Amino acid sequence: MPLAMNREVFITCAVTGSGGTQDRSPHVPRSPEQIAESAIAAAQAGAAVVHCHVRDPETGKPSRDPALYREVTERIRDSATDVVLNLTAGMGGDLLFDGTEAMGRPSPRSDMAGAAERVAHVVDCRPEICTLDCGTMNFNEADYVMVNTPGMLRDMGARMRDAGVRIEIEAFDTGHLWFAKELVREGVIPAPVLVQLCMGVPWGAPDDLNTFMAMVNNVPADWNWSAFSIGRNQMAYVAASVLAGGNVRVGLEDNLWLDKGVLATNAQLVERAVGIIERMGARVITPAEVRAKLNLEKRAPS
Question: What is the pTM of this model?
Fold first, then answer.
């Protein structure tokens, strides 16, 4: 693949995620107010897009409560800071087991929901973008499977499309890109197509550069794409993504650290990404430019 550096780059900030990071850093936002404030600060630092999960305000554990999504949405929309809103739809496909001798019954810790329930907050809040995890995979823990069957993805994708929300494909391995192409061919995912390459997440695609370029080379030329890696390689992937022709994602969902021993805020991670991008000779583009590029419409919640 010839080098085709991207010189017009948008930054996505993944604000809080659904991992068990709530007690590992005081900067991981929990309440809707904290999540919105952190998203706004990231936007002010240069993020054109904010990708939001919600958490239980008391415990910090991941939640699918539509009321929490509604509050986050309204707080961000009502602020004086413009930013493209991207809500996750990844919750509700968490299948867990209580050990290898109990595989005949899911653990009560599982969180499985139907397609309508998984996208209810998206239909209600009407963000510009929402995510669609395009595959099933073993996900880090010993007996945890992230479940997204082909039928479920077709159903969720159609509901997202019909709600007028741009789908961001989350691809954790090359097979996820293969199925995403099929969803595009079937018309479930309309153009312009947007994909996030998720690198280094156990046990998806590792974040070595050979695997990364295999992922990049499987993205059709007319798709828009971003990429990220988790942990210590987050900032290295800012440079790698731009150099390979893509956009970038940073944020506390994927990495808690600014430097060794220094916990980061979302705004600090975005500021560092801006510095890397600009020193490479590229320009960080605005929310308005992202909307024009991806044919997005900023709408109030229903």
Answer: 0.96
